[in-house]
Amino acid sequence: MEKREESPAYEQDPAPPERGLLNIWQSAGPSEQLCPERVLLSRPVLQASLGEHHGLLLTQGGQVYSFGELLWRDLSIPASAPVLEVSLLGKTVVRVAAGGFHCGALSEQGTIYMWGENTAGQCGLTDRGAVTNITVSEPCPVSVVDSEVVPPAVVRVVDLACGREHSLALSSQNELWAWGSGCQLGLVTNTFPVWRPQKVEHLAGRHVIQVACGAYHSLALVRSLAPQNYNTRNPPEKWERGQSPHYSVTEREEPFTVDDAHYCPLGVELTEVLTGETSPGRRGPRRRLQPGGRSAGSSSGPGASSCPFPKDRKFTTKQENLPVSANLKPDGHADHLTQTDSSPKSHPLSGWGANKNSVFPDEMELQNLLQKLSGHSLETQHTTGPGDTDSLSSHTSDDSCVSSTPSVDLFTSSYKDELPIKSQTHNNSGVSGPYSSSPVCLEEVQLCLEAENKALQEQKSSSLTNINQKGKTAINRRRSLPGTPTHGSPRRRRHCACRPSSAGRTQAAAPEETGDGLPSLETEVWSWGRGSEGQLGHGDQLARLQPLCIKSLKGEEVIKVAAGSHHSMALSAQCQVYSWGSNMCGQLGHVNSPVTVPHKAKLSNGLRVWDVSAGQSHSLLLADGECVQPILLYCGQHQEPTSAQSQRSCRRLPNRVESYTVRPTLLPLCMEMGYISSVCCGGQSCAVLADQNVMGFIAAIHELASRERHFYCWLSNVRKLLLTPLRNREGVCPSLGKPCTHLFFSLCESFVRLSVLIGRHSTSLSYFLHDVQGRDVTSLPLLTHTEHFLDIYKEYCSALGNFQVMGGFQSLHKLSIECLGSQQTMLTQLCVSDQSASGDVDLVSLLYWPLQQLHQYSRALLKLAACYDVLTIEYQSLHQGCSQYESLSLSLLRRKKEAETTFLFWKSHSGKNTEVLRLPQRRVVCESSGNRSLTLQNAGRFSNHWFILFNDALVHTQFSTHHIYPLTCLWVKPVTENSSGLYAIKITCPEESFTLVASTPQEKNKWLRSLNQAVDQVLGGGGKGSSPGMTAMSRTASYTFTGEGRFKDAQYTGGWLAGRVHGRGTMKWPDGRTYTGNLKSGLEDGYGECIIPNKVLNKPESYHGHWRDGKIHGFGKYKYASGEVYEGCFCDGQRHGYGMLSSGKQVRTSSSVFIGQWVQDRKTGYGVYDDITRGEKYMGLWQDDQWHGSAVVVTQYGVYYEGTFKENRMSGPGLLVSDDDTAFHGEFSDDWNVNGKGVLSLANGDCLEGLFSGEWSTGLKVVGTYTKPAADEPENRDRNRLFRLGQYVVPAGQRWSCVFNECWSRLGCDAAGRGERTTAWENIAVTITTAQRHSPDLSRSQSKVLECLEFIPQHGEPVTTANYDNIRRYLIKACETPIHPLGWLVETLVTVYRMTYVGVGSNRRLLRQAVQEVQAYLTQYYSIVRFLFPGLPDDGGVIPDPPASPSKSRHNSNTAEQSVVVVSCSSLLLPLLLPQLYPPLFTLYCLQEEQQEAQYWERILRLNRQPDQSLLSFLGVQEKFWPVWMSILGEKKQIVSSSKDACFVSAVETLQQISTTFTPSDKLLVIQKTFEELTQEVKPMLEGDFLWCMDDLLPLFLYVVIRARIRNLGAEVSLIEDLMDPNIQHGEMGLMFTTLKACYIQIQHESTT
Fold first, then answer.
1. Most buried among 462, 588, 804, 1532, using CB within 10 Å?
2. What number of helices (H) and strands (E) belong to the chain?
3. Is the model's pTM score more than 0.85?
4. 3-state secondary structure of 897
């Protein structure tokens, strides 16, 4: 061994720390002489874990120390000088676990390190040691790998527990992993040892919170599932019908019959009847008595078969110095084998004393002895095996011979005596028997059951525990069977392993918390492994191969489990300890029978246990006593002071009587240790971790936790003794009455919620104390869950007050006396306040008592805060929490007082009238019943006015009637004292106002203050009361109108101002009308949404838009019940201004859309009506919903009408043009009929003039002259003028005045140009800000645009070239959003334009009108822009340079022209409008140029068939311009005669882009770039300076146009010509455009031959 291990730890630093002090002592000594050894380490100890003869310590910084019998290193280290585990340095260990004879450590990263004995695989398959190694001397990592996932993943472990021959690990996913040997693993396997950790599949899917390992059994604390799927592995119903195991003997008299449904160790039923011959050697079970007087099955170590022992077995004698590997043969003699371990194994063991070599020859003798033993009382002192409590337990090895049990009581051990068959030795690892183990198989279980059945038939009862204890019926019986016999391990067996997994000790092993961060109390305890001592808690002594839930602990709120060698313990949130299993030394803390099921330990009154640990044959409890400092309680042996003990073995000869107490006893020495934070047991040792009370911090934390635990126990008792019985009582509803019953149930629910919170909190504080060194004080639940605590307490106080106000306590008191009876005394003990003389329970004080806990929280946090500097985060957090709890405490005490006052008020003013006003939530603030202290102004002398101010309403009672004024809609204003000398207060309500007159100034001030405070509180203020008259003039509240008027019976929720609806709100009428939006001074005003039911059509109508003075006014959208939709302007509830009415989707008979001007709900002015059903579109003037004035009508058949209309009919002179260019000009009458003089022009030029009558579609009657013009006849100009389009059309500038007027009005102008510019900009700013505030569904891009528009450019200064760009950019952004008035204008103009020229309106006759309309838009739009930016010049004006601009002077001659910026409406605004108007406009151009386009395209296709050189030659391009080389992917290739599309490629591609642009300026730029590309390609071929002449340029450009193959080039040319900026017509751009136009005409007229 290296010397490092021998160096004691305390040498490092002699100064002991103040935290994490470790005290350790042997458990079996007399309590008076216990001398705990203080282990002095340089660092605080975070956790201690004790094995059979060794222990592990974890100190701050993650260092691990070992002490005791380190057999795997042949060392014996005193506890006072533990050695450091050097190989674990740097691993940051967070958890240690000591098994029987092996050790485990867990690192911060979740890695396990194991060392020690490995005979049963309990250290796993480590990297350093081979499988055959029986010891692992140094900590080695053991990887836990989940092979079920792909790829296999390493599992992070958060907790570790070790038994004698097995180890358990809890993963971060709350799953359990096991390795080692034996049924205590819970694995589905027959092969032992299990070297690699395997998942315990039986608990897969369950949330495991904590694990603990006994010597040969395991416990797990598991979070409960929802009730419906709880424990899917429940036995069938017949098992559930069985009664609890707590019956009296009289209940269990039924004869015990053999049943086929046994509960087997697998945790499943064996349904078949177990019959067949039993082995001759297995005639009956071997029974062993314990102090509790019950029989226990036996079990032995690995290698032994799990079989019951024969009834004629012999008790073998104890043999001194027996070698470790001795196997007992059936005849009782030892078979000496070779030692395989280097450490010495032979030690003196205490023996049977006087009863050496005694043998029971037959069953009769055994029966007699058992009968005698069954009479022993539990209260008498029992003589037990003096030192080796393992001898009293069921697990010993075959090498430790017979246990030392006195002959008089014959408490025999469970090692093998006379086996019916020879001991089986499984040599899996090449080591002799003791190192191997055997599984429990189904066959062995069946043999056990058979043997038991036979034994039960032969004897009535073999122990103090009745064999029929499991129920009245013969069905649900878990027989008291021998468990799995166990083999031993190759070392001295002195102490049982105990490895309780102490929850919360370190961060890594902190108990699992639920989603809200507090521990769950909904838990279950599951157990598995050997059960021969009843340590599994299932009511029998069977083994369990897989985890099984202990049903009796379900619902007991277990928060921690601990496992001793052969007993188990569970700690509940209510500070109760449940224990079961071996009780030979009184380690269970009770003497209840049977010990096979959990029973409560007998604790003295006032003791609350909050930590438990179990050792080999003793238990240690940590509890709250009378003072703050925790106390220690011990359960187990009490030796006499004179006992001669061996320091190493703690054993003595059995000639001294030992005793144990029947309840846990106090260890006085605990008071000297300081504030104990956790306890630990193992083997025969006890250890505690304690802290010194530095600056009072530790005491404060302990006091807080102790108070909270006490509080939870109190709450649980009240709930159990009072609330639950009363709630479950059938007569509760008739006794309390319906309203009070409902309130009582609410009170019970809130009490339960409070109780659950306190239970979880007290548990959390206990966990906090276990790891008080590693926890931050700011992580206290009181600080992290403050809101939750405050809400629960408020809810409870409200429920309590409501019940009290309604007088529920009187009825409840009577009911409790009837219901509780004898328990009344117990309830009285729970009462904290003084009781009345009769001794009755004061339920009011009792149920109000929990509120005092808030003050205790505040006190505790203040104490903790005193331990920190004022500037630290901890101090600030604690101080803030302290003030929050203190403030709530005072607030709830006020509420309590209010409830008491209100109850007394109702008691003194009972009656039918007042009972109507009595509501649970209502509290009395003040009332004016005495001496006319408050009355109405101008009240009569004999009138009787009584005012009661409640917390929610002011009630005015006069004789038998009363008026209720809700405080939410009550405005209080003091009336200044005038000459009249009245002390008056003015009250304003939504529908009435009145003045109250007080009798004295003091009375006035009292009422004024009370009213203001009550109003302030009901509106969510602090209830302090603002200055008089200022309490929330503006507020949000709900009110139902009752008086006559528009709002009669309407319910309103929203904003108010001084008694009138004001702000945003919702108004709902009983007939279904609703309004949601802005209101002002009691009327709808601003944006709002309204729904109006239409009773005739039984459909609702809706309006979304603007209102003014209670009427629809402004822009909005109205959906009619008929399906029609109107979107446009309103004025005083009528459609007025611009608007669009569509028939909607619902109307199937006719479909139409009107867009245009409205006047007082009628179509009047210019408008477009599209009758989709008839296929007609009317574009013209209207009057009173009729066609009236100049207009154009086009039909779907291409017929074009133009003329004057009157009363929906075309009358007077007009023009008709058909699709084939036949035209008629003449007189029209009703329904498109021609009637009168006219001229008809045919498509070929022929003409017919005369009198016409008839309809165009059915045929015309003509009386007139037919003329066919001669070929050389000059053009008749007068006749052409007759057929000119546009004679009767509304001028473009007058068409959409309604749209522009709406835009002007949005800018705050009465008419075009009449208004203030500053007002316009203010309106724009308000519109944008409102949209940002009230439109949460704006997209990100829209929000960005609005942000850009918040910056308004300089609009008052003269516009120069410097700031012109800013204006242009602002206009572009403004047109991107319809929220901006200019953006709305663009969007609306696009809508009306498309409505006019799309669909039927796509008629080539309308092209001129469409172009003129665009130009009119630009002119009127520019006038608005110039109004906003007056610095802009007139259309076509020049913008000057900014003064003293140095940059301009440096411009050279090439850019001199560009320094002048000419502004025109087309250059500034066409880029904003035309892209959106382009599709319908370009379509009209294409239709107009259709014939010419056809000729052009036919020639383009033909000319493009020629190769390049041939085409260049044909077009007359000089050869000097012919390219010779072409570039393909960067590679030069020569152009040959057959090459096609190889010349001037870049110019061709550039010209093709003309189709992708919208505005004429963009198209002209494309033409300019084409010329530049052409010049660049030609330049290399020519020398010197080069200037184009038109003779050279035109043929070359013609080639480019032909090769570009542009469709609709004629339409492009016409569009540019019509809409190009007039300023550039005669410049370079104009020349280039003329060249393109010439090329188009040239191609069109190219000879086809």
1. 588
2. 32, 72
3. no
4. helix
